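User: I'm writing a tutorial on reading structure tokens. Could you give me a worked example: one chain, its sequence, then its tokens, then a sentence or two explaining what the tokens reveal?
Assistant: Sure. Here is the example chain.
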Amino acid sequence: MIWRISWRNIWRNKIRSLIVMMAIAIGLTGGIFLTGLMNGMVAQQTDDTISVEISHIQIHHPLFPDNLSPQFIIEDVNGKLETIRKDERVKAICYRTKAQAIASTATTGAGIIISGIIPEMEKEVTTISSKIVEGSYFEKENKSASIVIGQKLAHKLKAGLGNKIVVTLQSLNGEMSYALFRVGGIYKTSNTRFDEMNVFVKSDDLNPVLGIDPSQTNEIAIRTSGNEEAFIVAASLKSSFDELSVEDWRELRPSLEVISAMTDQFGFWLMVIILFALIFGIINTMLMVILERKRELGMLMAIGMNKKRVFKMILLETTLLSLSGGGVGLFFSIVLMGIFGQTGINFASWAEGLEAVGYSAFVYPFVSARFYVIITILVIVTAIIASLWPTRKALKLNPAEAVRSE
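And here are its predicted structure tokens:
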């Protein structure tokens, strides 16, 4: 009976109740959509960083990550690849020769990180080959050795397809070496900093310049069946290669996990702030309800309705009002997440700024089911908190005075 009365009381003033419900619905929809947008940006950055830049796991000589000196090499590459392939969670492996170098054209020069790769293996681990915007990914044979560079670096060096680039680097014996390459392909990722620094050549062209044997390398990159599986595989490989540095993507880029945790916290506190602001609107509405129904409440208490039932009635009215608006907000947010989660949102106007800090301009927002459960609980808690002051006001009414009020 109390439930039915409380629900009917909400609709005694339809316009006021609808305004409050709309405020709650719009607040929740906006907050959840903004949270989903940030989740999508962080997830996109994580996926792009793993698939383009670092892969799930990397193996190096312990001193190599500090200065990228090619002298810190991994011996017996084939033997180590056989050991790695025994784990069924490993989907693909590649290995690279890497060094810091200077790339020069007739116009200017720039510091770079040059990677000598085996294109067929690299395609299985990273997605650089799918990011080519001009030329090809070592698919055409040229008289000169080919080099694939980022679009940002191409603009910086003023180098186009077929242009010559001279690479200056230090070989294993400490002497400065020079190599001539022709631009065979230009790629573009969602991270312009990566594009500006990283170039790729065939390991067969780079290794002789560095003086590295084919059985040696500087870096082994591994793609696993999933992001979480990478942690298990990395832990296993650390015990197998205790003389080497084995790092999963979380260790390679700690910032990814930090940003993800910060985004979760931001989404939670954003919703808390929105609901806290809505509390005042709900309190104001319920106080108006109490004042308008002062005589009615006095009569109910005069004929025997105890304070416990009055408290329950006001609490239910506030909760039902909040849950109705919250339910509408959750429904619309789920619809929006479903639509834009499939089609994505293109921030082309801000593409340059986003890509400068490693974010894609095309975002697929999403929110986890756990977040919706938390929001539902927060709405209920908000309703209970918002009902305390109006309920206290109602319980302090003197039935005799309330009945005589106009």
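What the tokens reveal: Residues 57-225 form one domain. The chain has a mean pLDDT of 86.
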